[in-house]
Each structure stands twice: as structure tokens, then as C-alpha cells.
């Protein structure tokens, strides 16, 4: 696929909703180079407002945003424009969330960090085609580590509270947190 290939169809409107501003800017630029007319938002509220003003043909929405859940934006897109092709990006993937996103109308679910080629492929894939398995999926150890880090952050970096919620010994958790992330 060439970098100048455009989106299919007459409406190339795309909204990208992500609170990681450097990633948001890079992805927006890459999608513009591929022919999309890009709008960006870094909060759920801003994403909802822009979707209400002009429902896009395509959307890339981060699952967890500072002011809420990206699923709210996906739900509004589905209500305002049922034919929109939406994909979900997240650093905290799990099966339940993926199922919810698909039920709300997302056509794909990509783990961060996703590159522009993966996003473009997901947005423009023929709906009857199955998604291609990732070349380098996260290892089970990495998925476990990511989950522990997420809970640790949600517990405001409180080791005792995190250990309690994960049902593990505090010292075991401390050893895990002291190590580097697995590949």
C-alpha cells in the first residue's frame, strides 16, 4: 500500500480522539497524507461536540481519555452516522472491552502503540475480510505487566491497595514493579 493511497468512497472525513497529543498529531498528519480530511479531539467532550456538528465517515477513538470513556464517542457516532467505520485504540486491551466496542459499532480494535499503516488498514479493510493477526503481538507476560501497571496507576501508585485489588502479596507486587517491562 502506498503512502498516498486514499480512503474509499466520496467522504474522507475522519475524526481522531486521543489524549496523547504527540501521538494524535503524528497520526492526524499520517492520515492526511493518505487522503483523509482529519478532525482531532483530545477529550470525550470535544469528540462528542465535533461528532454532533459533523458526523465523520471514519473514526479512530482511544478507549481511555482523561475526561471519560471513548466508548461514549463511538456510541454517538453510531447514532449520528450508522455507516461510519470506527476503530478503537487502547493501551489497556481486554476481551470484554473489545466486545463492547464491536457491539457499539467499532470495526476493529487495535492495541497501542499502533502505527499509521495498521490504522489505515483497519479503517479501509473490506468489511467481509477478517483482520490479519498481528505480526508481533504482546506476550502473555507483557499483557500481565500492562494490567498490573494500569491497576497500579488507577490506585494512585499505592502498592498496598494495588496488591489488595490484584489479590497478590505486597512484596510480590513490589518485585514485579521493580523489574523492567517484559517484551
Labels describing this entry:
single chain; 183 residues; alpha/beta; Rossmann fold; Arc Repressor Mutant, subunit A; 7 strands; elongated
Report on this structure.
- There is one protein chain.
- Helices cover 45% and strands 17% of the residues.
- The strands form 2 sheets. It has a 5-stranded parallel beta sheet with strand order 2-1-3-6-7, sandwiched between helices. It has a two-stranded antiparallel sheet with strand order 4-5.
- 27% of the residues are buried.
- It folds into 2 domains: 13-124, Rossmann fold; 140-178, Arc Repressor Mutant, subunit A, CATH 1.10.10.60.
- The protein starts with 12 loop residues before the first strand and ends in a 5-residue tail after the last helix.
- The protein has helices at 21-33, 44-53, 71-80, 95-103, 116-124, 140-154, 159-166, 170-178, and strands at 13-17, 37-41, 58-62, 64-65, 68-69, 85-90, 106-111.
- The model has no long low-confidence stretch (mean pLDDT 84).
- With 183 residues, the protein is α/β, with parallel strands linked by helices.
- The longest helix has 15 residues, at 140-154.
- This is Two-component system response regulator RegA.
Amino acid at each position: 500500500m502506498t503512502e498516498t493511497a486514499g480512503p474509499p468512497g466520496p467522504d474522507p472525513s475522519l475524526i481522531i480522539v486521543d489524549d496523547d497529543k504527540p501521538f494524535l498529531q503524528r497520526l492526524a498528519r499520517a492520515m492526511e497524507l493518505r487522503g483523509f480530511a482529519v478532525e482531532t479531539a483530545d477529550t470525550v467532550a470535544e469528540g462528542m461536540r465535533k461528532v454532533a456538528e459533523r458526523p465523520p465517515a471514519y473514526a479512530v477513538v482511544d478507549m481511555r481519555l482523561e475526561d471519560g470513556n471513548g466508548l461514549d464517542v463511538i456510541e454517538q457516532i453510531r447514532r449520528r452516522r450508522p455507516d461510519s467505520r470506527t476503530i478503537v485504540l487502547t493501551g489497556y486491551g481486554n476481551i470484554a472491552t473489545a466486545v463492547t466496542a464491536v457491539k457499539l459499532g467499532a470495526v476493529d480494535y487495535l492495541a497501542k502503540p499502533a502505527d499509521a499503516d495498521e490504522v489505515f488498514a483497519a479503517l479501509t479493510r473490506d468489511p467481509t475480510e477478517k483482520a490479519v493477526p498481528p505480526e508481533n503481538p504482546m506476550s502473555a507476560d507483557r499483557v500481565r505487566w500492562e494490567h498490573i501497571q494500569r491497576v497500579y496507576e488507577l490506585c494512585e501508585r499505592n502498592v498496598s491497595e494495588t496488591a489488595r485489588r490484584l489479590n497478590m502479596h505486597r512484596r510480590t507486587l513490589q518485585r514485579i514493579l521493580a523489574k523492567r517491562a517484559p517484551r
